[in-house]
Amino acid sequence: MTKVRNQIEFEVHGSYALFTDPLMKIGGEKMTTQIPSYQALKGIVESIYWKPSIIWYIDEIRVMNSIRMESKGVRPIKMSGGNDLAFYSYLRDVKYQVRVHFDFNYNRLDLQDDFNEYKHHNIAKRCVNAGGRRDVFLGARECQAYVEPCVFGSGEGHYDNLDEMHFGTMVHGINYPDETGKEILETRLWQPTMKRGYIEFIKPEDCPLVRPLHEMKAKSFILGESMKSVDETNAEIEGGV
Strands, DSSP E only, in 64-141? Predict the structure, then answer.
């Protein structure tokens, strides 16, 4: 993997993780995937540091601990009221080394004054040292995670001597209108392979399988269209529009 100058490296770990497999969400029960998706890792990074003027890209991860699962009986709240009974399958005792970098969100030209690579990179590194700006979770709210700085590739991993491990077709992530500029919500699929504990993530635009979900109207400022001035907006409010 080519190193990018604005990359950050960190280790995230926790007692449990639930990266929900959408194909297994039948009857209200949840089962985790064996590894985190691109979108789940992106959510972790955005909990560490995020601004609407930048987009985080996941370069690669290193799976440090063995992949183990544990089922728990839970009582989720029913939509009709009361509680239900279900079994959730979690990953147990997870630890990942993560390497990511960012680029500017060129669909947000209204924020181009904030396109300062040096500033965002240094703030992100300080946020990693502080353990993140917001609470970090491993896929679900009940799976609290902890972030620490690390040197990517350091230490011993459980899969260092395993040549390859395939995970089949999995969800890569979701294409949102504020990042693509298109007025449609899409899901991306791919087929990851772990080599000696390392998983390199392909770029969102390189995913071989993209499926549309539904139309999603992007706001005018996201597409770079002209925005009403404050005076015009105030005039409409005063006029009862």
Answer: 69-74, 86-104
The answer to whether 89 and 71 have CB atoms below 8 angstroms apart is yes
Burial 47-81 (b: 16+ CB within 10 A, else e): bbbbbebbbbbbbbbbbbbebeeeeeeeeeeeeee
Residue-range definition of the domain harbouring residue 222: 8-238
Assigned domain for 108 exists: yes
Residue 176's CATH number: 3.30.70.2660
**In this structure, are residues 6 and 102 in contact, taking their beta carbons and an 8 Å threshold?**
yes
For residue range 177-217, list pLDDT tens digits in order. Answer: 888 888 899 999 999 999 999 999 999 999 989 999 888 87
Average pLDDT in the chain: 87
Q: Give the pLDDT of residue 219.
A: 60
pTM (2 decimals)?
0.84
Handedness of CA 142, 147, 153, 158 (dihedral sign): negative
